[in-house]
Amino acid sequence: MQYASKQFEHNLVKIGTISCWGVFLLGIMYIITTALGFLSLKTPHDQIDDPFFTIMELLILFIAPLMAVSVVTAHFYNSPENRIFSMIAVLFIFIAMGITSCVHFVIIILGRYVEFTNPETFTLYFSFTWPSLVYVLDILAWDWFFAISLFFITPVFNGNRLERVVRILLIVSGILSLGGLVGIPLENMLIRNIGIIGYAVVAPFAFLLMGIVFRKKLLTADLHKHRNR
After folding, report:
1. What is the DSSP letter of 142?
2. N- to C-terminal Cα distance for the chain?
């Protein structure tokens, strides 16, 4: 039973490390693609077009499950007395990633059909021009549920200096993501971009450091294993 527990912990931190670093690498690709997409625009109010838009959509479909796995790893990494907080974080990250995955999968699939591409229908349902159905859902996912998840996962990282840096980045990412909601009552999506900075720019670096924390735990466990042989 003890071996099974140690093997579970070993597999957990290994998968968590890979997931966190995957979030970072794909997140950097997302930042680069988004930047290139913005540079291709004629005016700041235009939407990013293909191929950049489709690449961004596909990247999110890969980032979402990796984020969920990373938070699950953090939950098991957490001390037992604080796991109520990380369990709430797991709940909210799955809601957020589920919503955003549905949004971007629907856009990729249905947004290509003629029945859905007439200007009125497309703008109302599938565009990221305010207001639209997918825009509202994506804001709900990232600026609300994702932000709350980050706030509840922060108690996990309260140990050494590296963990404290992770904690700070998670809090900053959560605050910025939540701040994007201000753009809704003001009907100003440029202000809403504050949220994008939180979850698309700051968060990948927080997950990178989370992966380093898990990696160090994995190396420590392997070292103890070799010493005990």
Report:
1. I
2. 18
pLDDT in tens, 138-164: 999 999 999 999 999 999 998 889 999
Under the banding of pLDDT at 50, 70 and 90, the label for residue 1 is: very low
SS3 105: helix
Contact at 8 Å (CB) between 31 and 201?
yes
Query: What is the distance between the alpha carbons of residues 46 and 52, in angstroms, rounded to a whole number?
Result: 13
List, as one string, the DSSP characters of 177-214: HHHGGGHHHHT-HHHHHHHHIIIIIIHHHHHHHHHHHH
- Residues 226 and 224: their CA atoms lie apart, in Å, by 5
pLDDT band at 89 (very low <50, low <70, confident <90, very high): very high
Q: Which amino acid is at 95?
A: I
Question: What is the DSSP secondary-structure string of 114-140?
Answer: GGG-SHHHHHHHT-SSSS-HHHHHHHI
- Domains of the chain: which residue ranges? 2-227
Return the structure tokens found at 223: 């070292």
Q: Confirm if 183 and 191 have CB atoms less than 8 A apart.
A: yes
What letter would DSSP give residue 187?
T
**DSSP secondary structure code for residue 141 in this structure:** I
Is the distance from CB of 64 to CB of 7 less than 8 angstroms? no
217 or 218, higher pLDDT: 217
